[in-house]
Amino acid sequence: MGLELENNEVETKNELKKKPTKKTKEMLEENARQIEELKSEKVELNSVLSDLEKEAADLGEKSALKMKVTHRKFGEGKVISQDGKYIEVKFKDVVKKFVLPGCIADKYLEVEDEEVYEYYVKCNETHKKRMDTELKIKSATYAIQRHEDAIEKLNAKYK
Description:
The chain has four helices and four strands. The protein is α+β, with helices and mostly antiparallel strands. The protein folds into two domains: 2-60 and 139-156, no CATH class; 68-127, no CATH class. The chain has a four-stranded antiparallel sheet with strand order 1-2-3-4, with no helix packed on it.
């Protein structure tokens, strides 16, 4: 009889271990809520990203080739090549490489035409917003993964 009593106590303890505590349930619910919030945030961010890509496409691409520019240190120069977002400028004594649109928008290179300057400022703003949005999407993706991992660990205790 004493053996049966001990077995019953062990079974009762095992049953208690398998049931999640109130705190664990709250943690599971909070992680699930956070995941849902992050997923809806990702949907919104993807929409913003799509709008920014459309905005960039609407701006189009202007060639900087043969454009005359001025640099504080190197003086006047002329764009001699463009490879995507990279340009090479030939100054009096040297050829330097710059990245569009930032080099013009941030006035590392100055242009005489105000319209061209405004174009590169708009391109740069769109580019920065796009990079920021992409970073937020990646951050939300990693946060979702962390919450899913937390849920998995909490559930593993009760299997």
